[in-house]
Write a structure and sequence with these properties.
Blueprint: H1 19-41, H2 48-55, H3 59-66, H4 69-81, H5 95-109, H6 114-125, H7 130-157, H8 166-186, H9 193-208
Helix pairs in contact: 1-2, 1-6, 2-3, 3-4, 4-6, 4-7, 5-7, 5-8, 5-9, 6-8, 7-8
Biased composition (Basic and acidic residues): 14-23
Pfam families: TetR_C_6, TetR_N
Domain HTH tetR-type: 24-84
Length: 210
């Protein structure tokens, strides 16, 4: 059996953590455990009891933090995509941010992180699982909104073609990125993430540049 997840930032020996720090560490460990179960056995294998056991806690602790399996999966979907491309949130909206996001997203897919793989598996499952669909529609719309903002900002500053439709670009980019991620899950050797990220970034730069 895999070892239980541990917080990413263990305390310094002798240092006493606050109650909030302990709560944050416990929540992170539970989400790590849930991601591992999704990747290993699929969404249906995730139960509050199994998540608690994997993380080294009781089911009661999982219930205390999340309340239900759906709330746990919602939290996993949110945290696994937050900050997926390091540094992109610090850039102003526009073509440059869009290209950094596209290349960085594909590059991160190549790292095969457990949380990223879990997100893609949950996203695919959301097409037929009612308990997941609302959360993932919300996550996808937030992603598309950011992409639309980048295209609109590029049009405004003259770096993006005036006839580019932000809505169409957003749907196309999101579909491409998610599709590459699913291909990577099915056949990792078929996707050279670093090379592909640069190639796709170049494609969108040529397609959108004014």
């Amino acid at each position: 059996m895999p070892m239980p997840s541990v917080p990413q930032h263990p305390p310094v020996p002798g240092e006493r953590r606050t109650q909030e720090q302990r709560r944050t560490a416990t929540r992170a460990a539970l989400l790590d455990a849930a991601a591992e179960l999704v990747v290993e056995s699929g969404v249906r294998a995730v139960t509050l009891a199994r998540v608690g056991e994997r993380a080294g806690y009781s089911r009661g602790i999982v219930t205390h933090h999340f309340g239900s399996k759906q709330a746990l999966l919602d939290a996993l979907a949110k945290t696994s995509q937050g900050g997926f491309v390091p540094g992109v949130g610090e850039l102003p909206p526009g073509l440059d941010r869009l290209l950094v996001l596209i290349e960085g997203y594909v590059r991160e897919l190549g790292r095969d992180g457990v949380s990223g793989r879990a997100f893609l598996l949950l996203w695919a499952e959301a097409a037929t699982a009612a308990e997941l669909s609302a959360s993932f529609r919300e996550r996808d719309e937030a992603f598309r909104a950011d992409l639309r903002e980048d295209v609109a900002a590029g049009i405004a500053d003259g770096t993006v073609r005036a006839d580019a439709d932000p809505r169409d670009v957003a749907v196309s980019v999101l579909g491409q990125l998610r599709g590459i991620g699913l291909q990577r899950l099915l056949d990792p050797d078929a996707v050279d993430a670093r090379r592909l990220g640069r190639a796709i970034g170049d494609q969108w730069c040529r397609a959108l540049s004014a």
